[in-house]
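In response to reviewer comment 3 from the previous cycle, which asked for concrete evidence that the modeling workflow produces usable outputs, we include below a single protein chain processed end to end. The sequence was submitted unchanged, and the resulting structure tokens are shown without manual editing.
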Amino acid sequence: MQARRWREQWAGTVRTPEDMVRFVDEVGCCTANELPGYPVFPSQSAVLGKIDAGTTDPWFWKDDLHIEKRLYYTRVFGGQPGFVSMQMLPALMATNGAVADELLFDGMLSPEARQIYHTIAAHGPIPIKELKLLLTPDVKRSVNRVLHDLERQFIITKTGITGRTRGTYGYIWDLVERWVPDMLVAADRLGRTTAMAMIREHLAAFGVPPDSPFYLKVLAWTR
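The workflow returned the following structure tokens.
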């Protein structure tokens, strides 16, 4: 699917959660807003139209569609939030995912990340407010940054929300290996080398060449 085609075909047509699922299933992945420096990359903001009456606020689609496991919501795109189809998810897990036990063994997790990971492993799924109560004060100060780092490595993920109002809204966190173990199995079978080639070929249709700096700057691939 060419970059111009997805913009022309989908512009203004995503008005319901079902439209959003169809869009992401077709393009494979997209960011919530236009990706800085890469306007050819699909984005939700470029295709969002007038929301149908009675439809939930699009702001909550990132929660509902992820929790229903119809799409996967992640900040893997250079820290920018976005959606991945369940079909493409194993490939991104294979290229950008990490195994917590290996990181711990190699000393690759910071003390803050270790404490947060172990707390979620022991008590998850756990709401963010309860998680913070179990952390030491120094770790609590950096909790959001560390959660995002672990989430981008497909180690943890949100599995629910605590409410929909300003005073009640918050993520419920758990381990990816407990929430979507089948996706990790598929990623392991695929392997990193094959997954990288698949993603490069797929994104080439959106004007992201295989040798583009995108893979280093956005996906943080080292090779």
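The first helix runs from residue 3 to 10. We consider this sufficient to address the reviewer's concern, and the full set will be provided in the supplementary archive.
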